[in-house]
What does this fold into?
Amino acid sequence: MAAYTFLWAGDTWEQRATDRALREFPYIDYVAGDGKRPLSEVMEGDEIFVVNVKHGHLRIGGRLVADGRPVPEAEAGRRLPRNRLIGKELYVFAKAESLDRFRHDFYLDQHEALSLELIGANGARKELTREQAGGGAGGIYRQEFRQPFLLSPSSAALLRRSLGISVSDTAEKAGAELLADLAQLEHTVADKTDREVLAKARIGQGRFRSEVERRWGLGEVCALTGLAVPETLIASHIKPWRDSSNDED
It folds into this structure.
């Protein structure tokens, strides 16, 4: 399970915070954005934390647990009334059993916000930019989260605790293993371009394994032999990757 931040612009946030919207759409039931990484790579069960920055402080609107892969707007239109479509390329819907109520006025403690460990699309860690106020460091830059970031497992756990949400140890472990791989690349691969290519591959490999487990429904058991020793299991393509279509990748 991967965890991401997702920025709701100030006008979107305030529209959702009106009394009428809070009555009619009290939950974070979907997010929508451009068809770019990492939104395009979201997998079933991934977490998306809706955020916004106001007056230099980080607002956390809540959490969405992805119900399958992102879908184009045409398909989203079959699940949403027309007035809720917002002209974006991809829509990620929330699992119905994990719907989280939108918190329009919840601010994360500033010290905790500045301690968040963020990872960009190239696998490199990102420090939060702070606005300059009177020659010194001010609050968090209001557009800092305009691109989605991958959250470290500890940062995702911090946000969950703040929101009163818990997840399984297995999900925590999967996220920790991914971040450990990315950290190792930072220390062992000097060339930035090579590091970015390998980082994308690491993220994709972990997701491929998770998708294999989900589709077979057997968890940490070999679908062919019944072997149940996780350390020996490898998620492999039956058909060579180079000969596969996009749907088969």
User: Anything to note?
Assistant: The mean pLDDT is 81. DSSP finds seven helices and eleven strands in the chain. The radius of gyration is 19 Å.
